[in-house]
Amino acid sequence: MQAFTAKHHEPPGRYAAGAYDAAQLLLGIIGQRVMTRGGVQESLWHGPFTLMQGRFAFTGTGDLDRASIAVNVYRRGTDSTGRSGMLPLTAIRFS
After folding, report:
1. CA–CA dist 48, 54 (Å, integer)
2. Burial 6-36 (b: 16+ CB within 10 A, else e)
3. Backbone torsion region of residue 77, taken as left when φ is above 0, otherwise alpha when ψ lies between -120 and 50, otherwise beta
4. For the CA atoms of 56, 59, 62, 64, what is the dihedral angle to 10 degrees?
5. pLDDT tens, 28-61?
6. What is the rounded CA–CA span in Å between residue 37 and residue 88?
7. Which one of 23, 45, 90, 95 has the lowest number of neighbouring Cβ atoms within 10 Å?
8. Which InterPro entries match (predicted)?
9. Residue 83 has pLDDT above 90, yes or no
10. Contact, 53 vs 69, CB < 8 A?
11. Of 3, 9, 20, 21, which is closest to residue 81 (Cα–Cα)?
């Protein structure tokens, strides 16, 4: 976050962490020379994966494993700029 803010002169947006995690997950799979849709799907079944936002796992149908989903709460005015921000300690886990 500090590197992003230093480079772009503003903090990353609300969805930056999810986009970063998705990109890192797919780049990691592609880096293993997996180049087919089926190969990517199969690679996702071999989780869980530890990413910036936590650990994620996928089911055999390609859906997120419900036990690995966290819902973060956003509230207006909760970051230093007065914009909506994530409250990282307020999360709901599905099981």
Report:
1. 10
2. eeeeebeeeeebeeebeeebeeebeeeebee
3. left
4. -40
5. 888 888 888 888 888 888 878 888 887 888 887 7
6. 33
7. 95
8. Peripla_BP_I
9. no
10. no
11. 9
